[in-house]
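Hi! If you just cloned this repository, the fastest way to understand the data is to look at a raw example. We've pasted two of them here, unedited. The first protein comes first, obviously.
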Amino acid sequence: MPKRLFAPNRISQLDPLENGCLELDCAEPIQSVVHPRYLVARTEQGSVAGEKFRSLAIRLRNFQKRQRLKKLLITSSVKGEGKSVISANLAVTLAQAQRTLLIDCDLHQSGLREVLGSHGLAGIAEWWRQSGSVHSFLRRMDELPLWYLPAGQASEPPMEILQSQRFSDMLHHISKWFDWVVLDSPPLVPVADSAVLAVHVDATLLVVRQFTTPKPLLKEALKTENLKLLGIVANEWQGTEQSYYSHYYKGYVPSQKVTPQDNDQLSDSLGAQA
């Protein structure tokens, strides 16, 4: 039997929303079609990558002590930067001490399905097409106080859902039951979804991939209104699906790529220490 990774007395106390918490405890476990990929925060906790995620989680908790910080948007400038891997591993790491919700807000082409091996799960899109509660679409990861709300299969334009008052009310309501809400969203430059989602969160982490992120598009992404940028996360993960949003940039050949030195300069100039 796997070792239990948390105990009830380690989970921080939430507002007394007993009915909601009971519903969370009854959520079905995540049913992985394949073994989760790239989830090093759970499968390789002693690795260098696992330590990096623990360090990031500690910094975020320190920020949380000083300012309002619960809903965290994870995005990137373009495809291929590993934002879904960062989102999933950060959520797993935060959940080792606090009640955490991971929301797949990429209604175009989910990256979390690959990371979690959770293809075919109904989620936000199916909730939108019915009048019931979102609770029945929540899934729980075994042995952690970590819940997952999939994107589902959208037949409507994603912006119709994300810009709605109903989505805003749902996010506000469900967030009350958690210490952290991590939203994995599409890249900033191809679509406007993340700019809309940024209005609903307390802060944003922008993922860049060293030697891959095009500087001009990164600069364009940083101009996004209401981004609430908390920090830049440098990522060197090598397994991103090449087809992800590729139709937006056919024929585009970037002349400049982000380097480690560029990331240091951006972090200094933006005060991004996450």
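Ok, and the second one:
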Amino acid sequence: MAKTGGRTTGSQAGAPRAPAGARRGRAEAPSRPRSAADLVRETARALVKAGVAVAHGTADPVAEAAFIVSEVLQVHPEDFASIARKPVTANTIQRVRELVAERIATRKPAAYLLNKIYMRGVPFYVDERAIVPRSYLGELLDAYFGVGRDSLMDTRRIGRVLDLCTGSGCLAILAALTFPKAHIDAVDLSADALAVARRNVSDHGLEKRIRLLQGDLFAPIGAAKYDLIISNPPYVDPAGMAGLPDECRHEPAMAFDGGIDGAVLVRRILDQLGMHLNPDGGLLCEVGRCRPVLETAYPRTPFLWLDTEESEAEVFWLPAKDLPPV
């Protein structure tokens, strides 16, 4: 449920430059793209010109253009290079242009138009009932959990995982893939979001390892304890809510709204955490720009702030041993 940190603004990093020798003056009809790469360039130019906000699973207009073209061609985006120079048909060009026109006119995220997005290369179904999957937690599960001395936790010791505010179920599924022996409980307040999560769990054949529960944070799990709790809860404050781009307004507002200071749900998680973590367990939680709020509210709590390729101090790790006494 990534909502801030530069991912809900229309960054134009990596946007294509105008072709050398392009004529100025009267606009001319675009030339017919000859290859998949040509079609990506045309699409990226259209997205930049329209000023759409990207970041719903893609980093910039070129990445979003490659995502759209790849889906129309039924190729995984990571494999786009293998077909970049291949010719494209008139039908493919028409379909891509129709999607781009709808993307620009409606400002709907491309993931909703295509009912698909990828995290860590894993495909997920998505529609307007759940926020478009995007989170730094997937990268951190890969980077910080393993069997070495630098790991936050030994993957082999993780038997039970809880995903709070699961939304489309993407993080629960990534956790199941990262921790092959673990059973995961995934909780969300929204019945609509859980319907999307149920489809994703089924698509990945994980019904026996992931249990979906509806309710408010820890309420549906009773007194259960876990080795690892992960969460990407709503964490946008009122100013951030007012400034959300049009694309985000197609997503469920409850997936963004973090209350008066953005950290209302995060504080509730922290205040109940000790009752649901095993002694060697820990919490991995994404909080956007709420670090100052949390460090003020919990001055003696030694949050370990983790960085990713695109973020700085938007996710913390907190082991059970560092929790204050309940």
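That's it. A detail worth noticing about the second one: The mean pLDDT is 89.
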